[in-house]
Amino acid sequence: MPDDIDQSSFASILEGVRKMRESYDAPNQPTATNSSKSGVSEQQGSIRPSEQPQVTKEVQSQQQEASTAQSRAETSSSEGRNTLNTTGQIQKNRHRTNRPVGSRRIRDNVQTYTAVQVANSQKGNPLLESPSMKLTSWAYNSQILSDYYINATLQVLFLSLKYHKLRPEYVWRRIEKMKGSSIVEESQNDEVLRVLLVVVDIDSPQDSIRSLSSICMRHDLSIVVAWSFEEAGNYIAYFKSNEMARSKVDSSIQGLKKEDYNSTIVSSLTTVRAVNKTDVANLLANCKSFKRIVTQASENDGLAQIQGLGERKLLNLRAAFTEPFIFNKDYDKDKTDV
Question: Which Pfam families does this entry report, sorted A to Z (predicted)?
Fold first, then answer.
């Protein structure tokens, strides 16, 4: 080793290199032997002091790259865990949302109350004294917005035409108050059948019923007309007694609907009084089309020769095809207004 080299500075350099090696070597790597140390010492002795700062910078850059790679790995692993946690939370929330909840989904055959829920405003209504209502369990409920709450899919508003004549704005306020619901906490559901039960207790109710029908069409209500309080009570009792067999009641009322041409004509013409299915079959056999049936019945041309069609049936057919579509309407006035 040359004598002009400062031993103290050389020893400090060796000590720094040794520390850096120990920091980067594996923990289980065996320590260098005395012979290797001497070899390293001899090798380091050939290195000039001016080159040592460059080695240190390279080691520092390697150290920075290693720390950066480690931090990136930790970040990616944490992001992966967060993604897994987020995905698991979404799946858990989705599973929780897909579970059937009674308050969200209104089923057709669910009985919410065993008794008819009656609003407090109906106290003293003669409907509640009808024989059918005496056989039906009912109870007052201040929470409902309709007058008679059958279940979650059927609610009834009650209206007397005599009261409607005195206060025509009442039905508007009741519909506005309902807002598509019959309980304050319950959201609107399009499957709910809302019925306006009207009792006719006045003379000449045609105009009132016509205006109420228009209101029901605009506000998605079904109108049911009763000619006495007893009949109105029968409707309420019938609604409650058949609430658990809604689909069965619908099928029994509607029956099997056929959509072929002949069945449609038969169902249309049999609505004329005294005309039966046999008469319709004979009309189709002779006239061949519905248009010719209407034309010949209106002009009274040749239908009298068909078997089974007497004078009364022919008069009913002619009246059905020639009378105005809407009774009590002045069509001449409409033409002059145009």
Answer: Rad10
Domain boundaries, the chain: 112-247, 261-322
- pTM for the model stands at 0.42
* Dihedral angle, C-alpha 234, 238, 239, 244, nearest 10 °: 160
At residue 142, the 3 state secondary structure works out as coil
Tens digits of residue pLDDT in 190-210: 578 889 999 998 888 898 999
The most distant pair of C-alpha atoms in the chain lies apart, rounded to whole Å, by 148
Q: How far apart, in whole angstroms, are the C-alpha atoms of residue 16 and residue 57?
A: 13
Radius of gyration of the chain (CA): 46
Crossing angle of helices 290-299 and 277-287, in 10° steps, is 100
Q: Is 328 left (phi over 0), alpha (psi -120 to 50) or beta?
A: left
Q: Residues 171, 164: contact at Cβ < 8 Å?
A: yes
Q: What is the pLDDT of residues 266-316, one digit of tens each?
A: 989 999 999 999 999 999 999 989 999 999 999 988 888 898 999 999 999
196: enclosing H helix or E strand? strand 193-199
Tokens encoding 18: 């040794």
Determine which helix (DSSP H) or strand (DSSP E) holds 140, and give its type and residue range: strand 138-140
**Would you state the CATH architecture of domain 112-247?**
3-Layer(aba) Sandwich (3.40)
> Long-range contacts made by residues 33-42, C-beta under 8 angstroms, separation at least 24?
40/14, 41/14, 42/1
Q: Do domains 112-247 and 261-322 have the same CATH topology?
A: no
What letter does residue 179 receive in the DSSP assignment?
Answer: T
The structure tokens listed for 221 are 């209500």
Position of tokens 């605009």?
218
Distance CA 196, CA 220 (A): 10
Which CATH architecture does the domain made up of 261-322 adopt? Orthogonal Bundle (1.10)
User: Which segments of the chain does DSSP mark as H helices, in order?
Assistant: 7-24, 34-45, 52-98, 131-134, 161-166, 170-178, 206-218, 229-241, 246-254, 261-269, 277-287, 290-299, 311-322, 331-337
Listed residue (243, 237, 244) closest to 137, CA to CA: 237
Q: In angstroms, rounded to a whole number, what is the distance separating the alpha carbons of residues 274 and 282?
A: 14
For 57, how many CA atoms within 13 A lie in the half-sphere containing its CB? Answer: 5
The two tokens of residue 17 are 């290199």
